[in-house]
Specification:
Layout: H1 2-7, E1 20-24, H2 32-43, E2 48-49, E3 60-64, H3 69-80
């Protein structure tokens, strides 16, 4: 997932020891909720807005790595159309 998101231009850090990716909201979105909404409406991708984890989570999106690799590739392909 990390390599795929980087390939479409998203500056993203690798998780250190987790099966979740915490990524800064891409610059074209104003906050985590608007980004999550756009991902759902425009790419059929569900991510968790960071604000749901409290004030410190704002500005980030959380994505799970617990799905099959094929689904991750599909998600990256869908996101590439809106990022």
């Amino acid at each position: 997932m990390i390599n795929g998101l980087r390939a479409v231009g998203w500056k993203i850090d690798s998780p250190k020891a987790s099966f979740y990716v915490w990524a800064k909201v891409p610059s074209q979105f104003t906050d985590s909720m608007s980004a999550a909404k756009a991902f759902l409406e425009q790419a059929d991708i569900v991510v968790t807005p960071g604000i749901g984890f409290g004030k410190a989570g704002e500005g980030y999106l959380r994505m799970s790595l617990t799905v099959p690799t094929e689904r991750i590739h599909e998600a990256v392909a869908r996101l590439s159309k809106i990022l």
